[in-house]
Amino acid sequence: MNGQSDRVAAAGEPVWHGPGAGRLRLEPLDTLTIAYDRTSGQTHLLAPPLPELLDLLAAGPATGAALVARMAEQFDLGDQDVPSLVAERLAELTAMGLVERR
């Protein structure tokens, strides 16, 4: 998919939005990533693939299907159920206040 079509949502399909530029300070720590949210003042400890999803959303808003396609293209996820994995991780990022579903 190209960048433009990634952002076009089918009727009723939500579009995911990542944090604005400069909002998060990300620091790798072994296999985890520390994320400091400059807006809320909260610090989060992120395990893969949460930082990778944030990186994908840094390119711009995307549908869940587009994120699934990007994850499958960029990472070797083996036999994992990628749509379920992405949906679960987006729910985690939403609960942390780091992404929005619109």
Please explain how this structure is put together:
The protein is of the alpha+beta class and 102 residues long. The protein has a single domain, classed as Outer Surface Protein A, domain 3. It has helices at 3-6, 50-58, 64-74, 82-95, and strands spanning 15-17, 24-29, 32-37, 43-46, 62-63, 100-101. Strands 5-1-6 form a 3-stranded antiparallel beta sheet. Strand 3 and strand 4 (43-46) form a beta hairpin. Helix 3 crosses helix 4 (82-95). The longest helix is centred in the last third of the chain and has 14 residues, at 82-95. It starts with a helix and ends with a strand. Residues 1-7 have low confidence and may be disordered.
